[in-house]
Amino acid sequence: MKYYSLIFLLIIFGTIHPGYTASFANVVSLYDDLVSRSYRYIRPETDLNTATSVGFKFYLTNLQDLDENTGLFSVAGFFNINWRDNNLVWNRNSYGGGDIHMHMPTKHIWTPHLILGNPYKEGVVISLEESTVSLYENGDATWSPADSFQMACDADVSYYPFDSQTCQMMVLPWQYDANEIRILIQSYTVDTTYYSENPQWDYVSSTLYNGSSVNALYISMTFKRKPTFFMINVIFPIILLGILNIFVFALPADSGERVGFSITLLLSIAVFMTIVSDSLPSTSSPRLSSVGIKLVADLTISSLIVVCTILGLVIHHRDDAKPVTSMWRRLVNTSKKCRPCKRRQNNGIQVGHAEGVKETEKLGIPNDDKDDVSWKDVSRFLDKCFIVIFSVVLFLANLSFFMDIVAGVN
């Protein structure tokens, strides 16, 4: 609070006219006269049927917090509120002829009673303890209350962590309707002259506007998340885990590590899903976040990989006394007749066989058992198929994720 008070005092003293020549006695006389003529609870209008025009301008100094999970939107700043007090007009010639710029405590002068219309918890009255109002001889009054304002904000995390959040600050003239206080906007954007950058969010834009059905001032501010931290610590590990999942089929079936490797990656993806879900609100409106959908897709793919790994191991360790069915035999033989296989045979590469190692036809040795297929051959064939299938599925899942992010950001 001391920080905002210091800013307030610097602004106040910075506005004192350099031609100030009034004596102390003249200022004291004017102060006593103004106090005797001021009424704190009566609007400063000669005709109370006339609405008091109050001008607003907001200076943003810092974004303190924007928590999507709890819906907390907290900013620090101060207002520049102006109106004319017709009861506090004076003639400078009656007080020594000096250009007097008075500072009246708020306890001695009328100020608009303002509250936050969308507080985060309890109601918040916009005021500054022991603050003053700057007065000029024509009755113009300027008040600059500063504080830390906490509002409720419904976050949209559809494209987290590449999201932008737009939150509102609603200011209500409490106990005054539109016939008593007329809100004037002096600047239709937030003034960022004193703004300090937030490490997690970039300030994008803002707008000030009047309410259509409620006599209120709305201050809408948009901030964009800085995604670098989340890219390195969330998105990149998720993509890497998905790629590692495919390599389970490259492990030797006899190593005994396939199931443990695939289940470990499945649990890792589940842990990342828990971490991400803890930082997001428990809502699906307007839609689930893109990273949440991707984690569900990766978890499903990883679960299917575990199932396929177990089925492959069952086939690999099947008793060779049981003959391979004709369907599997045709599939394996067809894969052996592919161009890469023929190229390896023509280059004189030896091909492993369940009953031993045979030389290729280029060496002149007949290959009488080329149609003999074992269950281990079927298992190796399935491993190659699974690598291709899950690589395509994972590529499409990642491509869909990034296309959804790009469409949402643009």
UniProtKB/TrEMBL annotation:
SUPFAM superfamilies: Neurotransmitter-gated ion-channel transmembrane pore (SSF90112), Nicotinic receptor ligand binding domain-like (SSF63712)
One Pfam family from the record: Neur_chan_memb
Metal-binding as UniProt keyword: no
Keyword Lyase in record: no
Signal peptide positions on this chain: 1-21
Main location class: membrane
Keyword vocabulary terms for this entry: Membrane, Signal, Transmembrane, Transmembrane helix
UniProt membrane topology term: Multi-pass membrane protein
Protein name per UniProt: Uncharacterized protein
Taxonomic source organism: Mytilus galloprovincialis
